[in-house]
């Protein structure tokens, strides 16, 4: 039987499972082995959808009386990237100088490890209480997120489950534990622009049509002017160009086409639809008025494609939940957390339709990077915060 009181041991066991989306990698089995001895009943539904990988998920349920708290998160992790950049192998869970290294250490196997340790400690401290707790954990958050939390919530509700509150353990703190609670997230859309030109000799550009000249003006129009100045609850909308590709190894050939991808994180000035309309309009205007193209008699030939389903902007602010979480944070760290909607999106966007939800986890500085790591002290403190939160929730 696993001992689950130590968050660092829990995290090390989870990190040793190479669960890069969509692989389960043993992570859910390891979590199951931690939760079963605590009295949880475990189910492992697999969801499928054409065109996406099958995904394993886990729903663990401790039936009790009173309100029902859902701990939510994901065991899948992003790829390691270049292994030579890692000080320690990404799935070895090495501890050095009080820090535990490994892919998923903060995003977000660390949060799950602390959920488990806090629950184990709480149950030991109050053996006569019968709290109602569930773990809703997916293996598809970092990927398309189609066979994960969204379907798991629907599946559990269809079985008669309902929740009074949810705590998501994503790494919400930028620098220090206790700084930030997330109360919503920006939206996200991803697009690709392809400009078709005419390949030719670089010394005879009049016989060719250079698509790089075309795409420069299109991309410029996507960056300037700014989309907005930010709103009460959200940062300004931001577009990042993530790739520009012409597939051209030669220095004396004008390429036939240029392809660029971009991602926009947007605030509540926009919906995904209105933002996509704005992008379409900007591209159309820039295609007609392009200072870089020499022969403007031929219209610029380009196409725009949207990839993935958009993530919508949302707010989850629930003052009662925030106050009780802040009480726990203050008791452990002495800090009063500020409320934020910055950073990436999260599965709270699905949970908010079922119950009040709040997000709080480790320090996220190294998430998705080489040498992802967390301090052991933060793991202890986060466990203490979650335990205090449980005490308040079930008081
Ligand atoms: N591609 C997926 C969702 C991807 C979610 C991902 N979230 C994070 O990295 C969390 C970071 C944070 O907590 O700030 C993202 O924002 O890209 C989909 O579209 O469904
Ligand atoms: Zn995450
Ligand atoms: Zn992530």
UniProtKB/TrEMBL annotation:
Keyword terms: Amino-acid biosynthesis, Cobalt, Diaminopimelate biosynthesis, Hydrolase, Lysine biosynthesis, Metal-binding, Zinc
Which biological process, per GO, is one annotated for this protein?
lysine biosynthetic process via diaminopimelate
Stored Gene3D superfamilies: 3.30.70.360, Zn peptidases
Q: Where is the Peptidase M20 dimerisation domain?
A: 183-288
| Obligatory cofactor(s) | Zn(2+); Co(2+)
Q: Where does Zn(2+) 2 bind?
A: 107, 142, 368
Superkingdom of this protein's organism: Bacteria
Q: What EC numbers are recorded for this enzyme? A: 3.5.1.18
Report the top EC class in one word. hydrolase
**Active site per the UniProt annotation:** 76, 141 (proton acceptor)
Please provide an example of a Pfam family that matches this protein in its UniProt record. Answer: M20_dimer
Catalytic activity of the protein: N-succinyl-(2S,6S)-2,6-diaminopimelate + H2O = (2S,6S)-2,6-diaminopimelate + succinate
GO terms of molecular function? acetylornithine deacetylase activity; cobalt ion binding; succinyl-diaminopimelate desuccinylase activity; zinc ion binding
For this chain's record, the cofactor binding note is: Binds 2 Zn(2+) or Co(2+) ions per subunit.
Q: NCBIfam families in the record, alphabetically?
A: dapE_proteo (TIGR01246), PRK13009.1 (NF009557)
Q: Can you state the subunit structure given in the record?
A: Homodimer.
Q: What does this protein do, in the record's words?
A: Catalyzes the hydrolysis of N-succinyl-L,L-diaminopimelic acid (SDAP), forming succinate and LL-2,6-diaminopimelate (DAP), an intermediate involved in the bacterial biosynthesis of lysine and meso-diaminopimelic acid, an essential component of bacterial cell walls.
Protein name, entry field: Succinyl-diaminopimelate desuccinylase
Please report the organism this UniProt entry assigns to the protein.
Pseudochrobactrum saccharolyticum
Q: Which gene encodes it?
A: dapE
């Amino acid at each position: 039987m696993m001992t689950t009181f130590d968050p660092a041991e829990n995290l090390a066991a989870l990190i040793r499972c190479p669960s890069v989306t969509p692989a389960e990698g043993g992570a859910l089995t390891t979590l199951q082995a931690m939760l079963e001895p605590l009295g949880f009943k475990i189910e492992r539904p697999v969801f499928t959808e054409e065109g996406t990988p099958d995904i394993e998920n886990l729903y663990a349920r401790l039936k009790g009386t009173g309100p029902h708290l859902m701990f939510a998160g994901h065991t899948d992790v992003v790829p390691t990237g270049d292994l030579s950049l890692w000080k320690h192998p990404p799935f070895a869970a090495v501890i050095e100088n009080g820090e535990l290294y490994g892919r998923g250490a903060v995003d977000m196997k660390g949060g799950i490890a602390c959920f488990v340790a806090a629950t184990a400690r709480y149950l030991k401290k109050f053996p006569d209480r019968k709290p109602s707790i569930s773990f809703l954990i997916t293996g598809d958050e970092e990927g398309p997120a189609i066979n994960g939390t969204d379907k798991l919530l629907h599946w559990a509700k269809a079985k008669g489950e309902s929740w009074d509150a949810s705590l998501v353990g994503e790494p919400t703190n930028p620098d220090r534990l206790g700084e930030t609670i997330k109360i919503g997230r920006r939206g996200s859309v991803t697009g690709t622009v392809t400009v078709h030109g005419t390949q030719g000799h670089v010394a005879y550009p009049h016989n060719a049509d250079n698509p790089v000249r075309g795409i420069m003006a299109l991309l410029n129009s996507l960056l300037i002017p700014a989309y907005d100045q930010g709103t009460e609850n959200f940062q300004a909308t931001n577009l990042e160009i993530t790739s520009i590709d012409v597939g051209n190894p030669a220095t004396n050939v004008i390429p036939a086409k240029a392809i660029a991808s971009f991602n926009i994180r947007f605030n509540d000035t926009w919906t995904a639809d209105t933002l996509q309309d704005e992008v379409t309009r900007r591209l159309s205007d820039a295609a007609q008025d392009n200072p870089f193209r020499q022969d403007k008699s031929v219209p610029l030939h380009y196409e725009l494609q949207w990839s993935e389903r958009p993530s919508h902007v949302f707010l989850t602010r629930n003052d009662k939940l925030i106050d009780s979480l802040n009480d726990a944070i203050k008791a452990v760290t002495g800090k009063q957390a500020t409320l934020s909607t910055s950073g990436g999106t999260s599965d709270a966007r699905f949970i908010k339709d079922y119950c009040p939800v709040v997000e709080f986890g480790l320090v996220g500085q190294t998430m998705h990077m080489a040498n992802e790591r967390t301090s052991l002290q933060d793991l202890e403190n986060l466990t203490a915060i979650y335990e205090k939160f449980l005490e308040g929730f079930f008081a």
